[in-house]
Each structure stands twice: as structure tokens, then as C-alpha cells.
Design a protein that fits this description.
The complex is a heterotrimer.
Chain A lengths: L14 E10 L2 E11 L4 E5 L6 H9 L6 E6 L2 E2 L10 E4 L11 H11 L4 H14 L15 H13 L5 E5 L7 H18 L2 E6 L2 H7 L2 E6 L2 E6 L1 H6 L4 H6 L4 E10 L3 E6 L2 E6 L9 E6 L5 E2 L13 E11 L3 E8 L4 E7 L11 E5 L5 E4 L2
Helix pairs in contact in A: 2-3, 2-4, 3-4
Chain B lengths: L7 H27 L17 H8 L1 H34 L5 H8 L1 H4 L2 H15 L5 H27 L2 H8 L4 H12 L1 H16 L3 H6 L7 H11 L4 H35 L1
Helix pairs in contact in B: 1-13, 2-13, 3-7, 3-10, 3-12, 7-10, 8-9
Chain C lengths: L10 H34 L3 E2 L4 E2 L5 H8 L1 H33 L4 H12 L6 H12 L4 H8 L13 H26 L2 H9 L4 H12 L1 H17 L2 H6 L7 H10 L3 H36 L1
Antiparallel strand pairs in C: 1-2
Helix pairs in contact in C: 1-13, 2-13, 3-7, 3-10, 5-7, 7-10, 8-9, 10-13, 12-13
The chains are: A alpha+beta, B mainly alpha, C mainly alpha.
Chain lengths: ~375, ~270, ~300
């Protein structure tokens, strides 16, 4: 990975981090991160607050220098390049639209610094305002704009400079839920139209999954997993990823035997069947993760053929109606708590207190070895 | 007030506040009245009205020279304190480094040195380096007294502004120098204005330090007034004081109108 | 997480260069003017004064003179008494004033109150001293009023005495007393008083159990500032004391004028030590109490 640089331009990732560490005094904020963000990709850094995602973004934008390791922009070492000489633009968490300038001057700020001729600046600002659907707002003051409008002006101010990479630091955090969802769709559309690489920092898993081509899930300064939304949701590699992205049922178990086809597990008195996993050696402890929507109630007459033999007896503690689905909170005989999601239109709801048997297919389980 | 208008505690507080107000304004009001007093010894009640003390102000050369010197020194000291203080405040507010708190305390030292002691010390220094009796010497001394105000006000103003705007400018291609003038200065405009006002008023009213380092016949206005008050005590001083009070009232009115527009802007911003 | 951000994120050298450029000028300026001047003053305090001029030989005789002649002890004592009296009056007047201002509801009246309390700051202490001269003089306003009301038979001497100096000094320093108290009172969450009332406290109890203890840091800061400024006062005792009020600042100027620089330097040193010791001592004394208050906040 580290040899043969610089590489051919077309194959170059837009951003690449190699064993990057960041220390703040005695705090190890980023602990050896390596990742590649491809050109024209919508890439998200997802994690709880304090996981180091913003620090990674600030190292890409040039506001922080890595303590160790290398940041490459289009294949070139960028560690020491100050932010004002980087081909990246950042949309700040609180947007940082200059309050003493009007909309036009805000958008033209970067262009003027590059000493573009006046008519060209005017043309580009107009095009940027068109892109965000705010033509005619040139002379508005920043405090006269609504939250959503400010958001779009911030996008216009960054994109008008045609950066190679657009960095976004939780920019939708201040908006209310409806506007947020609308802006998510708009951001994705804008990215399609301009074809720029987007690097998006967020702690909101739904937001990340809605927009991203790929997601890096971060925790405690490490990247836990990188993959498409589907990947990280359906095939989490760690407990953290499994619990941070949506709800999961986690069952502690011991490996009894494993082959190329399946892994046989024992959890208390129950015998469970999981998918094949090379890391599952007999005798080792693993966690079996099953998403709530993959669990089903075993019908009274159902034979064990359709469920690969995974059966757990449980009692319904609570049923929560959530519109499209009903979420059942269950507790097994051994005391483990489970969540089961069923379509709300399913035959008849199960009443709290009922004794049920829960089942799932073996390929719906994921073995977490960490 | 806190409760209904006839609440006895509230009434007592109002009356008290009114009394304090009278006490605070009384000497200033009577200076203004006394400036029209025909009696040389400022006796009450007035036996008539006269403008001759105002004419006298213009005839005392010490006042004319003093006014001129005070303006020059005030402007010079304000400029120097503002430049040095803003640079230092930027360093204190935007960087973390070892002994930062110690350096901040050091830079605020002029506040806790008694002015009379600083004046005496400055006199002993100036007679050695030839700054005694010079306007340069006055500018340096007054700038030093204004410096802590500029530093503390500007630091606070920088801290409340935050650095996101500066980072945004740099992200858009502005180098640190351009960022400072295009973004930092406009966003701390109010803090800088207040600092400048404080620095100027500090110099304008300075007595204790100036007393030691001015030469007779080349004084600042407060020193000219101080000397006149010790020697004559006629209402000429009331006349010039009244003029200065009018100047201060003007400053207050300007400040209030600035504050009002800012308050208005804040309200608009909040929507 | 607290990012160690630098305006020029280009390594340690660029950073220290920027820091030097920013903080260097003020630091050097302060050192070159204030520190050098204070050092010269300190050195002078040890020199020999012949009666007409200063000789640069280290004799420390000015110190001996200052600490053996009871006159100077009397001056220091009078100065401390004046400062304590002034501070006490300022606090007694200033606290209710600040409290009353926080209770004003109408914004226009708030501005008026601020102007009333703080605008005298914009006028020179000389102007204000002259104002008190007018008001308190033998033929001045107060005596005229006393005579008209037949409270006195003949004009009373109010000026050129400690009384006049105190009255004028309180006037000069009151804004400095009100300001710290006011800012602490304004920062106190009004919901606390409401909570106390809700829990059954009367207004008086609410004040003494909530407002008063929480305003203590402001009261303390106000007392310290007022006392220090009163110790340093020169103009007011000079113009209104009529030679009967002797304090160190007056002696310092007198001795410098009389060319007895060593004695002036000793007096200046004593004044600085007194002021700094008061500040340091009260800081140490109240630090623990303040710390627990800050915790409670």
C-alpha cells in the first residue's frame, strides 16, 4: 500500500489515510486509521461523539496535522499543507456563514481570494445559487435566512470553488427532523449532479445509511468496519457496529462444532445454528447477532425444517405499535432479552404475557468474534 | 419592580436608588450650574448668570495647549494600545501554550500597579532616557495603562466569537493575514470599539502618571486643570468641567444608540 | 476534545514564530517601560539623599527613616482607615443599588440607572472633586441648605477634612463597587429564588438563603477592588483634603518634587506591598469559601 507512489492519476483515491494517529497531549484521539476514499464517492464517517471522526475530517481539511502517519490527497502527501492551499472545502457544523457579509459576498469569498475576474465570479455565484435553488437571494443578510436556506448557502459557498473533496461536519444537526430528511435527499442529489467526492461526518446512523456509498464506523479512535450501508448493517463485524447501527439481538454462545456449511452453537440449554465462520473454533466464545426483523414467531404447526433448528422459548413482555411494524419485547427462559419486529398487518397481534417460540434462519445470524 | 407597584420593599428600593442617583449626579449638575455663577468663590444661591468663565477658558493658554496635547496623546496611546493589545489578545485567545495564564497575568500587571507608583517610577526612568516632558513619553505611559483594558476586552470578544469563521475563511483559501482582516476584525468590531473607548478615556482622564512626566507649560488638560484648581478655584474650572461633562454625555448618548442598534440586531437575528 | 489549533498549522516552528509575533511586542513593551521603571524605583529606594541631591550609594537609610519615624506609621494608619471606611460605605450603598437595578423591569429605566451609576466614570476625578468643592464649600449648596432649614446657625466646615475626602471618594469609587456585584446578581438564575419560594421560603428567607450567599463572590471582588483603588487615590485627597489628610500617594508626589527620590521610592514600595499583600491575603482567605460557592453554582 505504501510503495510505488505517486500512482496513476485515474486510479488514485481522492483521500487516503495511512496509519494516522492524533494525540492531544495525553489523549489518543485517533489510533492508527487507514482508509481510502474513492473519487466521486459519498463516504461517511459514522460514530458516537468523541470517537475521533471530526478529528479525521479536520486532518483531511488541514486544520489538524496527524501526530503520526500520512494523509494523501489525490496521491500526494498533504500532512503539512495548510487549509487555504488544499483542494478541499468544509461545511462546518454550525455552518460559519460570515454574519457581516451578505449571501453573494459569502459565496464569492473563495473566488475573490483566487482573484477570478468579476464577470466570472458573478457567473459562478449565480450557478451556485441555481444549484441550491436560491436564485435571487444574493443581497440577503445571513440572519434573514431560515435554517434550511443557511444550509444551502453553506453548500453553495463550498461547492462554488469546485473542490476535489467536499467535507461535511454534521451540518444537518441543527435542523428539525423533517427538514433534515429533506436536506439528506437534496445533498445526495447535489452530489450526483456535481460528481464531487463527499466525506460526511455524522453520529446519526439513518443519515449515514440514507446517503452514503460507503460508511466507516468509528469508535474510540479506531475504524471498526468499512463497507456499504448494507454491509455494515447486515454483516456487522463487531458488537459495537451491531449495536450502533440499529437494534440487534445478541446471544452469548459457545462454538460446539463448525464446518464449511454452518456453525453449531450452544447458548445455555439451547442449541443454535449459525452461519459458517472461519474464525469459529470449537470451544471458543462468540456472540450471535440477529436483527429484530429477522426473528419470527414459530407457528404452532411449523416443523423445524424452515428454521434450521433455531428455536428459543420466550414470553412477551411488551408490544409497541410503531406504524408499519410492531415491536415485541421478549424475555427468554434464561433471562435474555430479545426484540422482534413484525409487520403490523400480520395475521393477529400477540398479546403481552403470551408464551411464544422464536425462530430464525441460520444465514440471518452473524457471528461476532470480538 | 418585582411585585405590585405598592409593594413596600419595591418602593424602598426605588427611593434608595433615586437617592443614590441624586448623589451620583449632584456634583456634576452643580458644576454645570456653578459655571454660570458670577461669584468668584462659587457661593450659593447664584446672584445672577454670567458667561465670563467660559470666555476665561479660552484665555488660559494652559487649557488650550492642554486640550491639544490631551487629544494627541489620547489618540497616540489608543492606537498603540490597540495594536499591541489586539495582537496579544489574538495570541492569548487562539493559541494554547505553556504558561499562558502566567503571561496573561503579566500583561494585566499595569492594572494592579498603583498609578502614582507607576508615575514616580516612570519619572525616574524618563529623566534618564530623555523622555521626560515629551509627548512620546506620555503616549508610551498612557498606552501601557490602556493595554490591559484592550487585552481583556478583546480576548473576551475573540473567545465569544469562536474560530469557526476564521477556519471557514481559511478553508475557502484565505491565508492567516487575509483571514485576520477579512473575518476576525469585522467579527470583533464591537470589542475593538469598546477597547478603543476605554483606552482613550483612560488617557483622557489620566492624572497620577501625567503629573510626574509633564513639563510646566506643556501639560495635558487634566494636569492643567489640576494645577488651576490648586491655584485659583474660580468657576473657570466649572466652565471647562461643564464642557467636558457635555463631551462625556455626548459619548454616552452615542454609546447608548450603538447599544440599542445592536440590541435591535440581536432581536432581528433571533427572529 | 480540545483541538490544539494554530492559525498556521505548519508545525512547531511556524507556531512559535506566530506566537512570538503576536505576544512579543506587548511583552517587550511592558518589560521595557513598566518593569524597567519599577526596577529603577526599587534601586533608588536604597540610595543616599544628601538633602539636595541623590547619590548612587547603597545605604538603605530611607527605609530606616520611614520605619523609625512615627509620622509615617500615622500616615499609613490614616490611609488604611480612610480606605476601610470608604470601602465599607461603598459596599453598604453599592449592594442595595446593584440589587435594585436587577429588579427594574422596564429597559428604558435600566439604561437610565446604568447612566446614573456609571456615567460619572467618564468624567475626570478632577471634575468630580471640583463638583464636591462647589457642593460642600462654606458658601456651597449643602451649607446654604442647612442654613435655610435652620439646622445650623453658622456654615459648617465640610471640606478640607477626612469627611469631605470620604464623601468624594465614595462617589468616585461607587461604580467600581456596583459593577462586580451587579454582574454576579445578573448571572444568578432567577429560577433559584422561585424554587426557594416554591419550597416555602419567604422573600426575606429567599434573599438571605439564596441571593446573598450566591452574590458573595461579587461582593468580595467589589470589596477588594474598592479598597485597592481607595488606597491608591491621589487626586481626591489632594484637592479635598486641604493638607489635613495625609496618605502615601500624596507623600510620594511631594518627595519626588522635593528631589528626595529614595524616600519617595520607599513610600512607593510600601504602597505596592500593602496593596498586593491585601489582594493576596484576601484571595487566600476567601479562596476556600469561593471555591465551595463555585461548586454549588
Amino acid at each position: 500500500m505504501s510503495t510505488g507512489r505517486p500512482r496513476e492519476a485515474s486510479a488514485l483515491p481522492a483521500v487516503e489515510l495511512e496509519h494516522v494517529h492524533k494525540w492531544y497531549g495525553s489523549i489518543h484521539a485517533v489510533r492508527g486509521i487507514s482508509l481510502r476514499i474513492l473519487q466521486n464517492e459519498f463516504f461517511s464517517l459514522l460514530g458516537p461523539s468523541g470517537c475521533g471522526k471530526t478529528t479525521v475530517l479536520r486532518m483531511i481539511s488541514g486544520f489538524e496535522t496527524p501526530t503520526e502517519g500520512t494523509v494523501y490527497l489525490k496521491g500526494e502527501v498533504a500532512n503539512a499543507i495548510p487549509p487555504y492551499r488544499r483542494d478541499t472545502n468544509l461545511i462546518f457544523q454550525h455552518l460559519a456563514l460570515f454574519p457581516h457579509l451578505d449571501v453573494y459576498d459569502n459565496i464569492a469569498f473563495g473566488l475573490r481570494l483566487r482573484r477570478l475576474p468579476r464577470p466570472e465570479i458573478a457567473r459562478k455565484v449565480r450557478a451556485a445559487l441555481e444549484l441550491v435553488d436560491l436564485v435571487g437571494y444574493d443581497t440577503r443578510r445571513i440572519h434573514q435566512l431560515s435554517g434550511g436556506q443557511k444550509q444551502r448557502i453553506a453548500i453553495a459557498r463550498a461547492l462554488v470553488n469546485e473542490p476535489a473533496v467536499l467535507l461535511l461536519d454534521e451540518p444537518l444537526g441543527a435542523l428539525d427532523l423533517r427538514l433534515r430528511i429533506q436536506m439528506q435527499v437534496e445533498l445526495k442529489e447535489i452530489q450526483h449532479r456535481v460528481g464531487t467526492t463527499f466525506v460526511y461526518v455524522t453520529h446519526d446512523q439513518t443519515e449515514a445509511m440514507t446517503m452514503s456509498d460507503r460508511i466507516a464506523v468509528m469508535n474510540h479512535g479506531f475504524v471498526e468496519q468499512i463497507g456499504t450501508s448494507r454491509d455494515v448493517y447486515e454483516r456487522p463485524r463487531t458488537r459495537f457496529v451491531a449495536t450502533f447501527l440499529g437494534d440487534s439481538n445478541l446471544l452469548e454462545a459457545q462454538v460446539e462444532s463448525s464446518n464449511a456449511d454452518q456453525t453449531v452453537l450452544r447458548a445455555g440449554a439451547a442449541r443454535l445454528i449459525g452461519p459458517a465462520d472461519a474464525g469459529a473454533t470449537p470451544g471458543s466464545s462468540v456472540t450471535l447477532c440477529v436483527r429484530p426483523e429477522r426473528l419470527r414467531f414459530a407457528g404452532a404447526g411449523t416443523a423445524s425444517g424452515g428454521d434450521d433448528g433455531n428455536r428459543l422459548d420466550a414470553r412477551v413482555r411488551d408490544a409497541i405499535f410503531k406504524g408499519a411494524v410492531i415491536e415485541y419485547r421478549l424475555v427468554t427462559e434464561s433471562g435474555a432479552r430479545l426484540i422482534l419486529q413484525a409487520h403490523a398487518d400480520a395475521a393477529r397481534p400477540v398479546e403481552p404475557g403470551a408464551a411464544v417460540t422464536v425462530t430464525w434462519r441460520k444465514e440471518d445470524g452473524v457471528l461476532l468474534t470480538e | 419592580m418585582s411585585a405590585a407597584p405598592r409593594d413596600p420593599v419595591a418602593v424602598a428600593l426605588w427611593v434608595f436608588l433615586g437617592a443614590v442617583g441624586v448623589y451620583m449626579l449632584a456634583p456634576l449638575a452643580f458644576v454645570a450650574i456653578d459655571s454660570f455663577n458670577p461669584s468668584t468663590y462659587g457661593t450659593f444661591p447664584l446672584s445672577g448668570l454670567t458667561l465670563r468663565w467660559y470666555q476665561n477658558v479660552l484665555q488660559v493658554p494652559d487649557f488650550r495647549i492642554g486640550l491639544q496635547n490631551s487629544f494627541l496623546v489620547g489618540i497616540g496611546a489608543t492606537a498603540l494600545a490597540l495594536v499591541l493589545g489586539t495582537l496579544a489578545a489574538y495570541g492569548l485567545a487562539r493559541y494554547r501554550f505553556r504558561h499562558r495564564d502566567l503571561l496573561r497575568s503579566y500583561l494585566l500587571l499595569p492594572i494592579i500597579v498603583p498609578a502614582i507608583v507607576f508615575g514616580a517610577a516612570l519619572f525616574l526612568l524618563y529623566i534618564r532616557v530623555g523622555l521626560y516632558g515629551t509627548l512620546t513619553g506620555l503616549v508610551l505611559g498612557h498606552a501601557l495603562l490602556g493595554l490591559p483594558f484592550v487585552i481583556s476586552i478583546t480576548t473576551a470578544s475573540l473567545q465569544t466569537t469562536g474560530r469557526e469563521y476564521e477556519e471557514a475563511a481559511m478553508d475557502l483559501g484565505a491565508n492567516p493575514l487575509v483571514t485576520f482582516f477579512a473575518v476576525t476584525v469585522p467579527s470583533i468590531r464591537t470589542g475593538l470599539t469598546v477597547s478603543a473607548l476605554f483606552a482613550f478615556v483612560t488617557s483622557w482622564d489620566q492624572v497620577e502618571v501625567s503629573l510626574f512626566i509633564t513639563r510646566p507649560r506643556n501639560n495635558t488638560l487634566p494636569i492643567a486643570m489640576f494645577n488651576y484648581e490648586q491655584n485659583y478655584q474660580d468657576p473657570t474650572l466649572a466652565a471647562i468641567s461643564a464642557l467636558l461633562i457635555a463631551f462625556a454625555v455626548l459619548l454616552v448618548l452615542v454609546a447608548v444608540s450603538i447599544l440599542k442598534t445592536q440590541e435591535y440586531r440581536r432581536l432581528v437575528q433571533r427572529e | 476534545m480540545s483541538p490544539t489549533y494554530a492559525a498556521t498549522p505548519r508545525g512547531a516552528r511556524g507556531r512559535s514564530l506566530a506566537l512570538t509575533g503576536l505576544l512579543g511586542p506587548a511583552t517587550v513593551f511592558l518589560a521595557a517601560v513598566l518593569l524597567v521603571a519599577l526596577c529603577i524605583l526599587l534601586v533608588n529606594s536604597a540610595y543616599h539623599f544628601t538633602g539636595t541631591q541623590v547619590q548612587p550609594t547603597l545605604t538603605f537609610e530611607a527605609y530606616r527613616h520611614f520605619f523609625t519615624d512615627p509620622f509615617y506609621a500615622g500616615v499609613v494608619w490614616q490611609e488604611i482607615r480612610l480606605a476601610v471606611t470608604t470601602t465599607a460605605i461603598c459596599l453598604v450603598v453599592g449592594y442595595p443599588t446593584a440589587y435594585a437595578i436587577t429588579k427594574i423591569r422596564r429597559p428604558g429605566w435600566v439604561i437610565a440607572a446604568y447612566i446614573l451609576i456609571f456615567s460619572p466614570l467618564l468624567t475626570s476625578s478632577i471634575v468630580r472633586a471640583y463638583g464636591w468643592l462647589v457642593v460642600l464649600a462654606r458658601g456651597g449648596l449643602v451649607n446654604w441648605a442647612l442654613l435655610r432649614l435652620h439646622l445650623v446657625a453658622a456654615p459648617v466646615r465640610l471640606l478640607f477634612d477626612v469627611t469631605g475626602v470620604t464623601v468624594a471618594l465614595v462617589h468616585v469609587l461607587l461604580p467600581f463597587t456596583v459593577f462586580p456585584i451587579l454582574s454576579v446578581l445578573l448571572r444568578t438564575d432567577p429560577a433559584l429564588r422561585e424554587a426557594a419560594a416554591d419550597l416555602g421560603a419567604t422573600r426575606l428567607q429567599g434573599f438571605f438563603r439564596i441571593t446573598w450567599p450566591l452574590s458573595f463572590p461579587g461582593l468580595y471582588a467589589a470589596a477588594q477592588l474598592t479598597f485597592v483603588l481607595a488606597m491608591n487615590a491621589y487626586v481626591t485627597p489632594q484637592l479635598l483634603g486641604g493638607g489635613r489628610v495625609q496618605v502615601l500617594p500624596l507623600l510620594i508626589y511631594e518627595n519626588i518634587s522635593d528631589l528626595d527620590w529614595p524616600l519617595a521610592a520607599v513610600e512607593a514600595t510600601v504602597l505596592i506591598v500593602l496593596v498586593w499583600a491585601t489582594m493576596l491575603g484576601s484571595n487566600l482567605l476567601f479562596r476556600r469559601r469561593l471555591a465551595t460557592l463555585e461548586d454549588r453554582r
